[in-house]
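A common beginner's mistake is to predict each chain separately and then try to dock the pieces by hand. The better habit, illustrated here, is to supply every component at once so that their relative placement is modeled jointly.
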Amino acid sequence: MSREQSLSQPRLEATGIEVVVATRGGERCLLAGLDLRVESGEILGLCGSSGAGKTLTALTLGGLLPPPLRWRAGYIRVAGRLLEPGLVQEWREIRGRGVFVLFQSPGLALNPRLRIGLQIAETLVSAHGLARRPATREAARLLERVGLTAATTRAYPFQLSGGMRQRVLIAIAMGLRPSVVIADEPTTGLDPARRDAILELLRELVADTDAALLMISHDLEALAHLSRRIGVLDAGRLVEIAPTAELFARPRAVATQQLVASLAALRAADDQPVD
Amino acid sequence: MTAERRINALTLAGGVLLALLVTLVVFGGAIAPHDPNQIDLTQRLQAPSLAHPFGTDQLGRCVASRILAGAAMTLSAGVGASLLAFAAGLIIGVGAGLLGGRGDWLLMRLVDVALAFPGLVLALVLAGFLPPSPTSLTFALALAAWPWWARLSRGLAREAATREYVVAARALGLGWPRLLTRYLLPQLWPSLSIALAVRTGGLLAAVAGLSYLGLGAQPPTPEWGRMLEEARVHMGQAPWLMLAPGLALTVAIAACHLFAEGLRDQLAMRRTEPV
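With all components supplied together, the output reads:
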């Protein structure tokens, strides 16, 4: 709490974000006036059911919206820069070290034709201007940092499991030391133990680099473990944002009530003895 | 890993033949038993013999020597045209595909117009405008062939750019040169290499065809298509004159197709394995 007050400027500030999709009948609004602030060292959870606009938020904040999607209005302040719709060059400079996006399916996020070590080293060369050899050594160190062996540098992505690939991406994030990390459902398809390990690594990533982490997930339970504040998206609107305890105790928006209720139902079912 | 690298029989056969043809291009003139332009009217229209394995032509020149020396002309014009068209089409197609928008639209309409003409007719007209020489022929064929490459590589590039790991690499802040060489072009290469082998075979036939019409190398320069035309006049008396250039062309075109078929099988085989 004191930290939030001591820092006047948040790491990530998005104000009035509107995203539209161009259709034959004109433009349809998919994100309507999203406002978010994430401080450095903070983990903000963003929850919502499927289709609420979670991935859209990640793509918008990462400057990666593909056409026919279009960022129409609002502004984003990140890494000391002000971004408005229509800018291209600024995004190029910000991606990676400014904003790092951790994608839902790590299997698809790695180049299948490059060995892991080279892939990590290239991002380090590109972001920090490191020479090839130190970058390769750093890649091995980063892999060990996330609980993989240095030998993983020689592996191709298809030789790794889903959890290992997500670790590789977190290793890349640790190497880049971005100001803002946006994690879009980083634990999809992982078993509970692996999921917790990845969440723990994300927590360490934030602790190590003092990054601002926007954690996007439909898994309210995972968010509750990780974040002190949680926002809820519904149909392209941020319907509620509150400290975690308060959100569970007094959910105000309908969408929040539904999410909290379904989680409670799951927990109740867990407590029942299984035949 | 090692099993899938095995080269199959078709690729091997095509490769060996192609290597042989390259040797001919480089050393053909040197290993010819006779001077390919040595006229000896006392020896005209001789049937194949030990001294002249493919006989002699209407001016008493050794046909075998002319085939060997002519390889350089026919093959370098065909391969040159193919590579020129490939390079131009690839740059324009990938550029248009990644650029998108109006530039893409304009370039592709240009390609549509160019593709509306039958390629060989277009090359014929272009070569007719230029002074008759092998260089003109090469450029005329390349000018007629590039739109096909532009269309193909545009489609492939657009598909390649939507792959999630390309988006992820952009999110990592990798620059365009690296994205292009490591993430995009390697995806195009399997399809392009097969097409290149096939199209080169086609252009070899086109070179011979236009030379037959008198548009390429001028007499007395030995050239396979030209030799076919000269043989036509004497078909009744000396049918073997057709045999050598016909056979040489067939072997060259077959080599390209064998190589393409082999590559296709190999790449298809690899694709069925988990990647």
